[in-house]
Amino acid sequence: MPRTQNAAEQKARDLIREMTLKEKFQILASHGYHRFYSTKPNQRLGIPSFKVTDGPLGVAYHSTRKKATRFPATIALAATWNRDLAREVGAAMGQEVRASGRHMLLAPGINIARTPLNGRTFEYFSEDPCLTREIAAPVVVGIQSEGVGACIKHYAANNQETDRGSSSSEIDERTLHETYLRAFEGVVKEADPWAVMSAYNKVNGVYCSGHEYLIREVLMKKWGFQGFVMTDWFATRPMKSTAQCINAGLSLEMPWPKIYKTSALEKAFEAGEFSEESLHDLIIRYLKVMYMTGAFADGPQSTPQAVSTIHNQAVARRVAEEGMVLLKNEGGLLPLDKKDLVCIFGTHLKKKFGRLLYGGSSAVVPPQEVTPLEGMLRHKNVMPPPQDRLRCVQGAQACVVFVGLDHGRGKDSETRDRKRLELPDKQVKLIKEVALLGRPVVVVLIAGSPIAMSEWIDDVQAVLMAWYPGMEGGHAIADALFGTTNPSGKLPITFPARIEDSPAHSSGSPRTYPGDEEKRVWYDEGIYVGYRWFDKQGIEPLFPFGFGLSYTEFRLDYIQLEREILNSPEDTTVLEVAIENIGERPGAEVLQLYLENTNSRVERPPRELIGFEKVHLEPGERKAARITLKAGDLAFYDAESHNWIIEDRPHDVIIGNSSRCEGDSSKILYRGRR
Ligand code: BGC
Q1: How far is the CA of 637 from the centre of ligand 1 (A)?
Q2: Which of 54, 128, 192, 232 is the catalytic position?
Q3: CATH architecture of 315-481
Q4: What are phi and psi of 368, to 5 degrees?
Q5: Predicted confidence band of residue 668 (pLDDT cuts 50, 70, 90)
Q6: Is 2.60.40.10 the CATH number for 554-670?
Q7: Whether pTM exceeds 0.85
């Protein structure tokens, strides 16, 4: 444990000695306090109010009543595949949390995308545990570098919004660990978040806030989590047993007591349903974090800097730029020429997203938000939507159509899932009408989850996935379209051609989504989630995981392995790859390292991402990129021994620029120490 944590823990231990039993009970919930995002202080002991704010797109307005930098959606950050940028985002958010007088950010959300219809896909990173861990961990480190806590959420297997408060995710042990807990495990071990939020749903019949196996056994004992666990808001509403939550390891019930009412705690304690020792453990964990955030020292204080700074807005813009994924670019239509006429259309030209609770608890209201229209009109040859479409497009080099989703009902929004994978009919009609005008068409998609495009993709020449690009989005989109920047995002999630192709929906039965008559959701596809499913079933996705085009071209030259034999799970090796930008523009490529499971003795996905590195290159530049591989990432979870196992065998690894890349593989031998 780091020294600061040790000192904070000592203070917490000293303080608990001063507390009466009643005060100990009262601290476990924001006792009768009317505020939603701060706990009740204890005047007698000088315990301050602990103040949190929602994320994960920045500091949420409903928590602070302050405007803040609206960052692009989490999925856009994942699409950057840029760890350094993720750390910068975390630090920028942390600074704003501190400046708005809060102690903790309820972020990042690290649930795995099981279904592309999950209403909160935009708030999460990916369908892949490795990418999720690698981008989420630096976000946590960045947030906490500012002296405020990160609360990773929603633990665990909270993969849909439909019936989220009552459904049970039915998952076998291997799938639970290998798919749904793996990123949580990695982030806990690598980034040491100060809190974890328990999810609304049940896992295998037990509510997450009272799940002893998930919290006490796995999170705390197995992974060594040092922070505290708090509930999602009102997650305990359907629960009955107070002792169950204490014994499971839950420190804080939010936003006010139900299961942790003082009277309920007294009753359970008197009946001997939990020990004072377990009570102390929960309180110490929580008080320790309060000390670490400076809550006791009257800090952090609100400062005028709470309003988003120029620096933080620039960070948001970089995420928007780097996260954009160029999905199609026939004949090199993009980038557009600044000297020639461009006509713009679409439902999303003037759309703003930063409104109170728009999309749910992640909503950040920025001081200003640059729409695509505003971004595009900074260029003099751009013509806004005309009355007479035909007249406008004469002589235009291209028509750009801005469409996508928003945070309305049944789209990308908390509390309910999307209804379908396609764009609204009105938008499809518009794309088709514009395509009939006879000029090349670019579609810019503004959305937080995969979109089916079969109805219209052959009618257009280029598609740019801009996600929800945040407060600087309009600038970032225009810069990408005109080639001031070069898109370097790669999909963090598979884009299926049809919803039936994706794992939770392929059975067509409510059993796998959204749940049977008893609201059990059976994860029958097991470990085959995302591209693992498409690869195993041999289904061609519309666009595969890891895919994204560039305005330039790259050539991989040689691959060299630093060490070919690894001996322990902590061992690492480095793959050195020579990469050259053979095109005419500066650009960045993401070198992705996949494990190819061709000779395993157990069932394993055909491919698994186990490392990556993003490399920026000027035209003609050549670099040796270094991708670090951890032996632990070769492992599968063995349900018999309840542990990770790395097979004693040569492992084939392949480097490429998407999960469907082709090429030569190299061999890494794992020989566990005997
Ligand atoms: C969401 C959490 C959020 C909490 C507090 C819940 O509805 O699931 O992500 O942090 O509310 O606003």
Answers
A1: 30
A2: 232
A3: 3-Layer(aba) Sandwich (3.40)
A4: -155, 160
A5: confident
A6: yes
A7: yes
